[in-house]
Structure formats: structure tokens, C-alpha cells
């Protein structure tokens, strides 16, 4: 049997075919993953459906199981972290912390209550509103945080009493397959099924008659296709899609004080974060200083194989994304932008790109208008704050954004005018299990995390008991 197996009905399942998983630090196939058939997907769905009645009945068993699942991840964080680094590319310390973070999310949702709300209690009737699980959830996850974003779905879905069939990205299937393997120890058969494969498998899942909910994280284009596939069966959807997050510096910001924070929030996970800073708007009076401070930071960081000691940033995860980043940067430079730092792929094997700061770039350039999702940051000058806000909001995206000022109150007031699901004042990428996360406009439908994320995996039911 191959090293990596799917999990269906609590058992290890191989496949007739497999596919290669590339290590982005080398550009070479480093391992292989099973390629599920339609019949295996059917088996996974039927298993999840069969496990549903017992799982949703016993709330205390669910709480206990989620705590146990978190403890398994804590105990195996370095082991699974190495798998993430192999397939995703991020430094091992970051990958290990991703696994630890997944455990933290599990603990949070394990202890989150599902309230019963009494809306009438009088001589005529006792009426409650309760939250019931939806049924089987189909979860489709991306390659940037393959384990953590799987848990963002798994933890609330299972806590609410649903069962799940999980499909990871074909670029990063190994950590999710390992998740299914290690959680066989603590979850009843059928509660979590993990299948791997390509785009065909995702299409089979979204059109499958069993799931009542689809939770998807990925691109806007694919999210629209998921919504279309869900519509004929009226499946519920949560779609966490792309972002083109602006950061606006006000005229009293201190470039030296904010540059490191801006850089960290733009280049976390090598820029491969949906809510990372994707474009920075800077007043003319501060522009040169901000560009140089960001460029100095970009030139100072260590890029390399995530398994190597001291590496801060790894490769771009996959060849198509690497080529996209290269194309956007090259097109901007050809159009008159200046690479204050970086601007080119790094020679050698793997999908490495220099941390890039682009100056003298304007709205209307693709790298400003689109989501680059990689290690390249455009810095755009502005003269008038109203103009900057209009440009920041003038996009189909609306995931998050931030405003930076020496006056925290002023920063918060301006941030509240951004059209985004999350806005920050003097910080960015401050995410937590209790904080809802979702987007406006094309950045998504619904939210994840917090009680709101938990409620997204439930249906409201009114229980009306007549008196007398």
C-alpha cells in the first residue's frame, strides 16, 4: 500500500491511479498521492451519510473527540509540519506552527456552545429556536495553508454535528491525507473522510447529491463555478475567495516604525495569503522613505528551501502561480514600474522569486488591480486621502484592508470606510479563532470562525410547544 492513503469509513483506502506531488523547492516530484475514482467518492459520501445520525445525537462525544483531535495534532506537529514544508514550501518552523494553530482552532470550537434561544414562554406556548446540523459537508481546501484551512472547516462543521468529506488541493494533498490517517484514532468511522484528486474530483463533489453544504476556499473563478454547481440542488455554500487587500498610510505615519510590519503582512507565507497586504497607498510626502524602507527589508531576508536552517521565505508553491507572479512583475516593469528590490526569479531549481518591491506603479496596472498572491508588492503614491480610499475600494474584491497612522483613532476612523469584511488599524493579518472572517463583493459568501462560522454549518429550526 502507498505511504499516503485516503480515509473512507475510517479505513485506509488506496487508489488504482496516483499523481505526483511536486516539492516547490526543487520543482521535482517528491511523492505521490492517490487519485480517487468517482466510485470512491460515492463510498466516502455514503460513509459520511451513514455516520451522521449517531454523530449528531451525542454532543458531548463530539466535544471530547475534537479535543482529542487537537491533542493528536499537537503531538504530531513537527511530523505533519515536515509534510507541509515538502509539498507547500514554507519554512519548517512556520509549517509546524500551522499544525499547532490547527489544534488551537479545534480546541476553540470544541468548547463553543450552540445556544438554544427561547423566543416565547407564556400561557399560550413555549417556543425555542435551535440550531441543527445540515448533514454531510463537502469541504474543498487550497494549497497555501493546507492543514489550517482544512481545520477552519472541519472544526465547526463537526462541532455542529455534521459529517464531512474533505478534498485538499492537488498541489498539497499529503498533509490532509495524513490528517485523515491520524484522526482515525479519535473520530468514529465516516465522520471524516479524506479523498484526493484533481479538478474532476472537485466537480464531482460539488455536483454530488449527498452533501447539503459546500465549504470552499480558493480563487474567485472557481468559487463562482462552485456556486453554480450548488444552485440546482440548493446546497448551502460558504465561499472564502480572493483578496486584493489595500494598506493606506496616512500623512502622519512614521515609515521607519511601520515598514517592518507592512512587509511582514505583505510577505507572510511568501505573499500567498488571501488577506495579506497586496498593494500599499502612500502619500507623496512619505513615498520615497516608505519605498526604500520596504526595499531594504526585502533585500535583507533569506529565501530558500523551507527545510534549511534560517530560511524566512520559501518558494512560490506551484509552477502556474510562479509563472503568474513573474508575468505580473515583468509586465509592470515593462510599463514603467521600478523594481526597488527584487524583480526577477532566483536562478536555480525550484519556484523561487526575489522578494520584490515595485515603485512608480499606478492603478490600472495588473499587479495593482489583480491579486498577485506571491512575493511582489506594489507601492502606489497618492495626493488626496479621498482619492486613495476611492482607489482602494474601486475593485471587485473586499476581503480586508488596513490603515496606518500615528493617531490610532484616526486610523480606525479611516479604516471603517474601507469596503471589506475585516479592517485593521495599525496592524494587518491579525486573525483569531473567535473573530469572524469573510469578504464583501467577490471576496466571498458567508464567514468562517467565531460563533458566526459555527452557525454557518447549521440550519435554524423552530420548536413550538403549545400550552393548554
Plain-language structure description:
The N and C termini lie far apart (64 Å). Helix 4 runs parallel beside helix 5 (148-159). The radius of gyration is 23 Å and the shape is globular. It has helices spanning 38-57, 59-75, 77-88, 92-110, 148-159, 174-183, 199-207, 220-230, 255-267, 284-300, 319-334, 366-369, 385-393, 408-415, 450-455, and strands at 6-8, 11-13, 17-23, 28-35, 117-121, 125-133, 136-140, 163-167, 192-194, 213-217, 236-240, 245-249, 277-283, 338-341, 356-359, 376-382, 400-404, 422-425, 437-438, 444-445, 447-448, 458-466. The chain contains 15 helices and 22 strands. It has a seven-stranded mixed β-sheet, sandwiched between helices. Helix content is 39%, strand content 23%. The longest helix has 20 residues, at 38-57. The protein is an alpha/beta fold.
Amino acid at each position: 500500500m502507498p505511504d499516503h492513503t485516503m480515509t473512507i469509513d475510517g479505513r485506509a483506502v488506496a487508489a488504482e491511479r496516483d499523481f505526483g506531488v511536486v516539492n516547490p523547492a526543487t520543482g521535482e516530484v517528491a511523492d505521490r498521492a492517490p487519485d480517487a475514482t468517482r466510485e470512491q467518492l460515492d463510498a466516502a459520501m455514503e460513509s459520511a451519510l451513514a455516520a451522521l445520525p449517531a454523530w449528531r445525537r451525542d454532543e458531548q462525544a463530539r466535544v471530547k473527540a475534537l479535543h482529542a483531535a487537537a491533542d493528536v495534532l499537537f503531538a504530531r506537529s513537527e511530523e505533519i509540519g515536515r509534510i507541509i514544508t515538502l509539498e507547500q514550501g514554507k519554512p519548517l518552523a512556520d509549517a509546524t506552527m500551522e499544525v499547532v494553530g490547527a489544534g488551537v482552532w479545534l480546541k476553540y470550537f470544541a468548547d463553543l456552545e450552540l445556544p438554544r434561544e427561547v423566543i416565547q414562554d407564556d400561557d399560550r406556548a413555549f417556543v425555542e429556536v435551535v440550531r441543527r446540523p445540515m448533514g454531510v459537508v463537502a469541504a474543498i481546501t487550497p494549497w497555501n495553508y493546507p492543514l489550517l484551512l482544512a481545520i477552519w472547516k472541519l472544526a465547526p462543521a463537526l462541532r455542529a454535528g455534521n459529517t464531512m468529506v474533505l478534498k485538499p488541493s492537488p498541489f498539497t494533498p499529503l498533509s490532509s491525507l495524513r490528517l485523515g490517517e491520524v484522526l482515525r484514532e479519535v473520530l468514529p468511522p465516516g465522520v471524516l473522510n479524506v479523498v484526493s484528486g484533481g479538478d474532476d474530483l472537485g466537480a464531482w463533489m460539488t455536483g454530488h447529491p449527498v452533501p447539503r453544504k459546500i465549504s470552499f476556499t480558493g480563487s474567485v473563478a472557481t468559487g463562482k463555478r462552485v456556486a453554480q454547481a450548488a444552485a440546482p440542488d440548493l446546497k448551502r455554500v460558504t465561499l472564502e475567495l480572493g483578496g486584493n487587500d489595500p494598506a493606506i498610510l496616512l500623512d502622519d505615519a512614521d515609515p521607519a516604525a511601520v515598514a517592518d510590519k507592512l512587509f511582514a503582512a505583505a510577505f507572510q507565507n511568501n505573499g500567498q495569503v488571501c488577506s495579506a497586504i497586496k498593494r500599499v497607498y502612500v502619500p507623496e510626502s512619505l513615498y520615497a522613505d516608505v519605498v526604500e524602507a520596504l526595499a531594504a527589508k526585502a533585500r535583507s531576508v533569506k529565501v530558500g528551501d523551507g527545510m534549511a536552517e534560517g530560511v524566512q521565505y520559501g518558494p512560490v508553491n506551484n509552477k502556474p502561480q510562479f509563472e503568474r507572479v513573474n508575468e505580473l512583475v515583468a509586465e509592470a516593469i515593462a510599463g514603467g514600474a521600478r523594481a526597488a528590490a527584487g524583480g526577477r526569479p532566483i536562478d536555480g531549481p525550484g519556484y523561487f522569486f526575489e522578494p520584490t518591491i515595485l515603485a512608480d506603479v499606478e492603478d490600472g496596472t495588473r499587479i495593482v488591480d489583480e491579486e498577485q498572491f506571491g512575493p511582489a508588492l506594489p507601492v502606489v503614491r497618492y495626493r488626496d486621502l479621498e482619492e486613495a480610499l476611492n482607489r482602494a475600494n474601486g475593485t471587485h474584491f473586499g476581503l480586508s484592508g488596513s490603515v496606518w497612522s500615528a493617531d490610532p483613532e484616526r486610523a480606525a476612523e479611516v479604516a471603517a470606510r474601507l469596503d471589506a469584511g475585516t479592517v485593521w488599524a495599525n496592524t494587518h493579518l491579525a486573525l483569531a479563532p473567535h473573530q469572524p472572517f469573510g469578504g464583501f463583493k467577490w471576496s466571498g459568501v458567508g464567514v468562517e470562525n467565531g460563533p458566526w462560522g459555527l452557525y454557518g454549518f447549521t440550519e435554524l429550526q423552530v420548536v413550538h410547544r403549545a400550552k393548554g
